[in-house]
Amino acid sequence: MKKQYARFIILVIVVLGGCIWIDDDGSPGINPDAEETIIYINRTGLFVDNMIDGEFVGTVGPDSTLYITSRYLDGQHEFYSVAQDGNLSWGPTVFTLYDGEVFRIYLEETGMTFSVDR
Fold it and tell me: How many angstroms separate the CA atoms of 73 and 102, rounded?
């Protein structure tokens, strides 16, 4: 009788084990492989060096745009920009990006503004 009971328990575990589904892909509609994009829009007449988390990511020229795209930009980051002539700087500013977002940073002589497309 104990052997039959043990077989029954094993059979139940095997059958139910194949029927359990765990949603570990995140919320519906979120694509964890989506690329995040950061766009620096320079509205000054200066060359501006840009850093994310203290790492140099590129220079944007006068009245130009710099695009940075990666699948690994989601999360919290610190943004800092400085004009090459040293007279203007923007930040540091901390912002959190989520999968697939486009984060625009507008660099103007009066300050830094942002917009996000989710």
Answer: 10
